[in-house]
Amino acid sequence: MSRRKKKLWYVPEGTEPTDFQKRMMAAEASGAIVPSPKLIKTEEQIEGIRLSGMVNTGVLDAVAAQIHAGMSTEEIDRIVYSYTVSHGAIPAPLHYEGFPKSVCTSINEVVCHGIPNNFDILKEGDIINVDVSTILDGYYSDASRMFVIGKTSPEKQRLVDCAKECLEIGMEAAKPWSFLSDIGYAITKHAHEAGFSVVRDLCGHGVGLEFHEDPDVEHYAKKPGQGMMLVPGMVFTIEPMINMGTWRVFIDAADNWTVVTEDELPSAQWEHTFVMREHGLEILTH
User: Which of 88, 116, 246, 262 sits 20 to 30 Å CA-CA off 233?
Assistant: First the structure.
């Protein structure tokens, strides 16, 4: 006996659906993968996420003002923790699934989830991703920036620039009523044309009421027009991880967190939190 798939979008009998509900029901009836109603944020929730994002942006600005050669990643962690709590917020990474610090600091060949410590000292030519996530009044925001320490090699600088371009191109591809793979397809095309690769084992994600929500936002895709439909009210991150060499990565067994490129060539990443609007993406972090 076949089992009928439960519809995500419906209205009780005798209730007049809104134009938005009509569009969602029509999309679902056509066979599109649509987000569940719980993934559509209210304006009140979006405002809460926006305020969280303002603190998150302030954290990254504080790091930008102080980061320099000779400082340890532990010092970056202290900046993040101090700024966050002084603004009435909580660093989301701290104790998340056992993560021991308030921020992820990923240097050179570390793709993401690098753990701050007293032994990793920044030096001239390093590139580092500082990934900050903030909880304010129960609302989550998430963003990261790349920092170049002093002057780096032309190859590393191109990688950092390309990663930022991939984020911007992914943003442009994310149109209301388009599909998730449109983002990954645009990013993949740009990165490959620049001679770089796109990490496939990690992705962006829904965010706002929890640290990680549906949907997964893949940055690698072979075709556009696939995956979940992007509709107004969805809040998610785009955070492409772009590698100089292979896209393959491994998790360092020493801490079971740090993700490193398989060939130990450099990686770069930029990230923002967005809300989808009728006119396109609105950035909630800067």
Answer: 88
Q: 3-class SS at 48?
A: helix
* Total count of residues recorded for the chain: 286
3-state SS class at 132? strand
- Is the peptide bond between 93 and the residue preceding it cis, with omega within 30 degrees of 0? no
Structure tokens at 65: 């003002």
Place of tokens 């010092």: 75
Strands (E), the chain: 90-91, 104-107, 110-112, 127-136, 139-148, 197-198, 204-206, 213-217, 235-238, 241-243, 249-251, 259-261, 267-269, 272-277, 280-283
Rg of the chain over all Cα atoms, to the nearest angstrom: 20
For residue 11, the model assigns a pLDDT of 87
Contact (Cβ atoms closer than 8 angstroms) between residue 196 and residue 242: yes
Q: Which residues contact 141 (CB under 8 A, 6 or more apart)?
A: 49, 52, 53, 55, 56, 133, 134, 207, 208, 273, 284, 285
| The pLDDT of residue 2 | 45
Report the SS3 class of residue 188: helix
Residue 231, token pair as written in the block = 């509709």
- Kindly report, residue by residue over 191-217, the tens digit of the pLDDT: 999 999 999 999 999 999 999 999 999
Identify which of 83, 17, 18 has the alpha carbon closest to the alpha carbon of residue 56: 83
Of 166, 91, 194, the C-alpha closest to 133 is: 91
Q: How far is CA 128 from the centre of its chain?
A: 16
pTM of the full predicted structure?
Answer: 0.96
